[in-house]
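Ticket #4471: structure export looks truncated?
Reporter: QA, pipeline team
Priority: medium

Steps to reproduce: submit the single chain below to the structure queue and open the exported record.
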Amino acid sequence: MATTSHPAISARGKYEPVIGLEVHVQLLTASKMFCSCANRFGDAPNTNVCPVCLGLPGALPVLNSKGVEFAVLAAMALNCRINETSIFARKNYFYPDLPKGYQISQYDKPLAEFGHVNITVGGVTKKIGITRLHLEEDAGKSLHEGFPGASETTAVDLNRSGVPLIEIVSEPDLASPDEAYEYLTRLKEIILYTGVSDCNMEEGSLRCDANISVKPKGQKQFGTKTEVKNVNSFRFVREALEYEIERHIEVIESGGKITQESRLYNSAEGKTYGMRSKEQAHDYRYFPEPDLLPLVVDEKWQSQIRATLPELPEALRARLIADYGITAQDAAVLTISRSLADQFEAAAKAAKNPKRVANLVQSEILGRLKAKNLEIDHSPISMKGVAASADLMESGAISSKMLKDLYDLAFEQNKDFPTIYEEAGRPEQSRDTGALEKIIDEVIAANPKQLEQYRGGKKTVIAFFVGQVMKASKGQANPQMVNDLLAKKLDA
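Actual output as written to the record:
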């Protein structure tokens, strides 16, 4: 990345970035878009192939209806207008991993248009337009590997050829790398909630190309854009955009001109490098796919698909706040995934105090999961276990220290909270007033200086005495009883 001495830094305030993103999302169908080959990641190269995805003469595509349903579901979740009739087209170009010499896609009549995603950056909410969402098939994959006797060999794996994709093209409404990062985060979150893709960037099921230009502030005409292709993490998208903005400004300020081109981002160096010129728009010679009829998604089919649309993150957060009295921050954390949100709500319904459940998930569960590199679905403590522990705390049966110790045991032994609680003999906080009074008397007698401070008017010293009593009771004392008994004795 550029350093603070970079000449573009001082000129940054004179320019404004214009950013648009193209996101490709693989759909979680069992088979490919136009044939019955398995849609499965990680199989041996070129094992999930047939005459259709190999592009052999005479092979005809057959449309996967589940792929259409998934694409429509994603479009609905992204507030798009579904076009009742859309057309598949051939996008003609040569590349080694494209055996047919063309890709089946959609061009002037896409499946869906005019959607939007709401983002919030710096406390400001903004609507980012979605130009179009269309269906297409994925290409194969070129593998660059070293083999014995050769420095590097390029091979082609066609397992991915024909895998169903949706391409989501944003309007150039993004004005900063932070907005681009937030847009991608919200987009991925929505897609995951629909269940149409796993959005695994490491496996290539979500890929992003970023278009970036800069223009003098207030100027309506956009500057010349560059495209940063195939960035494999949202963080790297943000870094690549930051680098490109500074590079554009430096070139313009030095009297040069930006070349319209595709670039690749080297994350190790924090720089982009030219890949190929795009001075002239590539003539893909689109024309309607002659082997596929127009795709018609009529109102009846749309209604059936809409009925499967789940509650989406934004609406879910608002409802959880209203129904369970949790904060906006609680809701943001607890809706990171649909699984976590569903489990929290089940626990909140079962518990006496949903807010306490929310606190325990955030303060006790998520941190332990992160430390062990576990997802919420693999937590030893189920949400029912969290609800049970929350109720024990709510009733005063166990203290926070006791809960932490029991949670530690649950994670160490990979057992749920109720099991650990039973095996520990159902421990409870001490409510023996006589035993507590004896401990309190001993603590007061051992700390005459603090007693003098308290009786001299420094009432906050009671917190010191509470801590000493809890320590002496090894966390078994009921904090409320400790506070009440201490106040009486100190004020006597």
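Status: closed, not a bug. The export was complete when the record was re-opened. Leaving a note from the reviewer for reference: Residues 15 and 217 are 5 Å apart (CA to CA).
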